[in-house]
Write a structure and sequence with these properties.
Helix content: 25-40%
Structural class: mainly alpha
Distance between the termini: 40 Å
Amino acid sequence: MSGAFCWRRFAPQYGGYCAFAMSRGYIASTDPQAWPLHGGKVYLNCSVSVRTGWVPEIAQNIALADANWLSALEG
């Protein structure tokens, strides 16, 4: 359907777990008010203050979180 909004496109990364925590190798819950968009994707964080610290190095943090994603779920 042309022009239809696609919710899947904006599904949070890392299953909705905190992207900061994932970049450090563990899972944590999130605050729905603490999210940045980057590269067309939503990254949730556990708090607004964590988001503020996470965003300045977002590309590096995403790379770390991507690398930790599967092992963090197993741990």
